[in-house]
Amino acid sequence: MFDFLYKAFYRLNVKILVLVCLSAIIPIIILSVIVDIAYANRSIESECKNLYAKSEVLAKQIVTSGYFEDQSDITMDTRLDEMSQLIDGRVILTNSSLRIVYDSYSRDNDKIFLWENVTKSAYGEELSYYDKDTGILTTTIPVTFINDEGDIEVAGVLLASGEFKFIDDNLRHIIALEAIIVFMVTVLSIVVGMILGGSFSSPINEASKQFDKGVKGGEIGEINVTGYTEIEDLSLRFNSYVSRMETIDKSRQEFVSNVSHELKTPLTSMKVLADSLVAMGDAPVELYQEFMNDIADEIDRETGIIEDLLAMVRMDKSNASLNIENVNINELTEQILKRLRPIAEKQEVELVLESFRPINAEVDKVKLSLAISNLIENGIKYNNPGGFVHISLNSDHQYFYIKVEDSGMGIPKESLDMIFERFYRVDKSHSREIGGTGLGLAITHMAILMHSGEIKVDSVVGEGTTFDVRIPLVHIEGESS
Ligand code: ADP
Fold this sequence. Notes:
This protein has helices at 2-9, 12-65, 74-86, 116-121, 165-216, 229-280, 285-316, 329-346, 365-381, 428-434, 440-450; strands spanning 89-95, 100-103, 127-131, 136-146, 152-163, 324-328, 350-355, 360-364, 388-395, 399-406, 454-460, 464-472.
């Protein structure tokens, strides 16, 4: 249950719904509370002012009438009564000793009135007190006169208190209205939130649906979702990923059939050669020698293919370790060229090495020579008779650089990104003819990455290809696997 709620809350549409509701309801509630408080304060303040004004008029009349000295004149009593009726409450007048000289309720006459606000008003303060529970507002003001010395003197305190229930009633009414508004806004925001949530999450749901459909069909197909830019970007990226996967998958399938074919071809030739020798029975020794040489060539071819596969598998092991030693790169390259020169001559391709300075670097000799020979071999293989492969070696204080430039057939732009993928070959039929398996550059790439190096390719179809390799002179520990 908890898990269900947790998952539900993390759904995009639910989040949007909650967000819309909160952003609509919270401001309204805050606004309502502010309005309520402001209304209550403002109402009490204005009633207070009213009471003060009335009390002050009455206080002046009390002083001028000499009420404190002689209370037999009922005019002042009448005025005080009128005031209590007017405010629908109680009016009390004390003398300066806080003894009550008039009480509109006639309850506490002659008693000493000891209430904090009255005491303070006897010292000249005007005070008010609002009791929230009863809704009664009470003001106390000093009744003052100017004595013979010209000083203001307090003759008594006038208290007026009335019930202002209407403030609370109005407030309750306002709160009820506000509750209705909050309820309506809540309902409205739920509706809007659901519509918005639905429309926001629908492209994502659509993408999931299309994805599910594709997967159920056995193959991951492309998806086509519109809605907003992010989801469109995502579907574009997904589609490019899918097409990349498809290409790799296709190459993989082709590779399996190619490898089988490549492995089978030398075996078939050997079988034919051996069978014909057996069938001849008394074949001359020269023929035996010739056939045996052909069989040896086929064995070499078979061994080459198997070596390529093994090299790739070895390189592919994630924990493959490097056997780092200090190697003279110039000598290593010369050895490679010595081995490849006969092949180049056969293809009528000129091999030129240009060494700008002696280079010693910390590398794995076997893996690096595999990487370099693959590049040079490709330069020869994908070349034309009369062409060239230029190899140049250079270094600075941090890296050494190997450049392999050929005058061969070149690689189309759209294939440049793919050539380092395993099993990828630009021209399948041609490559088969040439004898490629699509593993060479993948092996080279892996070997260079294991040395924390970089490889870049630049090519123009019909003009040639240049591979630029950059490898640190000092091996960087920990980045080799
Ligand atoms: P392969 O065994 O087929 O040569 P690679 O991984 O060495 O495999 O190369 C991948 C593909 O890249 C090749 O099939 C070829 O089409 C292309 N390629 C590699 N190097 C060159 C080059 N120097 N010139 C033209 N095409 C090349």
